[in-house]
UniProtKB/TrEMBL annotation:
Transmembrane segments: none annotated. InterPro entries: G_OBG (IPR031167), GTP-bd (IPR006073), GTP-bd_Obg/CgtA (IPR014100), GTP1-OBG_CS (IPR006074), GTP1_OBG_dom (IPR006169), GTP1_OBG_dom_sf (IPR036726), OBG_GTPase (IPR045086), P-loop_NTPase (IPR027417). Keywords: Cytoplasm, GTP-binding, Hydrolase, Magnesium, Nucleotide-binding. The keyword Metal-binding does not apply. Residues 1-154 form the Obg domain. This is Obg family GTPase CgtA. The lineage of its organism: Bacteria, Candidatus Gottesmaniibacteriota. PROSITE patterns: G_OBG (PS51710), GTP1_OBG (PS00905), OBG (PS51883). It comes from Candidatus Gottesmanbacteria bacterium RIFCSPHIGHO2_02_FULL_39_14. Residues 155-321 form the OBG-type G domain.
Amino acid sequence: MFVDEVEVIFQAGNGGDGKASFYPGQRTGPDGGNGGDGGNLYLAVSSDLTLLNQFQGKKLRKAEDGRMGGKFRKSGKNGQDLTVYLPLGSIVTDLDTNEVFELNEISQKILICKGGFKGRGTHDLASPSNTTPLKAEPGKPGQKRRLKIVLKLIADYGLIGLPNAGKSSLLNELTKANVKVADYPFTTLEPNLGAMGKKILADIPGLIEGASQGRGLGIKFLKHVEKVTMLLHCISAESDYLEEDYRTVRKEIMQFNPELTKKPEIILLTKSDMMSDKDLEKKQKILKKHGRVYLVSILDDRFHPSKLPVFKSDFNPVWMK
């Protein structure tokens, strides 16, 4: 199961308590050592998009506590830092302060929770006015945060469209992805990514009317097209309702986030091998008023997607500039 949104608690380690003790025998004075500092908790970034699965059934991540101080002025060991890896494209929101962290670079590493300070032992607490303190300081608690983590895929191109519009087949053809395909709606139950050269394509589960209000599977995944550079709108050439199909998807995108409609878009008329040239010409004419329309078929070399400008090896056709 693909997890793309979780609420978790992150906590740094608590500081270790100071030690309350005195030299034995003829030696006098306090000898209690300081505790150790609590471990910090860091967030780091990975290309593994399944990393939010680690929080299923385990909503708390905590760094190690500092150890208590010892006799003879021995300091306690510092708690070990903890680094939690999150997928590239994660947006982390502190539920109490509304502070937001965006993880958009593989090299990023963020201190999210500061470890608690050590408590002082009786040796360090001794002073001219109090030469024999009887109590040591307790360690300070580590920082604790309630966080919401939402993954928004970072892809160059987002394949959108109604269920069974051929998006997954296209992704498999263009990349090394091995996405399940079948001739029924909702074959794709989670977003899929594929790499073509240095560009990333994302296949988003099919949208249906009402997706932006929670119908079907689309609402859960619409957020994954918010960061793509271009929308590739797949419409099946077998459909008798091309304009309705197009408008349904555009309406749901508009209702979810109007900014998405401002992204560059091309229309891919998929399954073109199933139609005659005369029918294809009519269908292209219907859709051309909405933007550039390209014929696509993974079975017919005439319409092979690798011949389209957007899929050329340099990924920089003139019309995309």
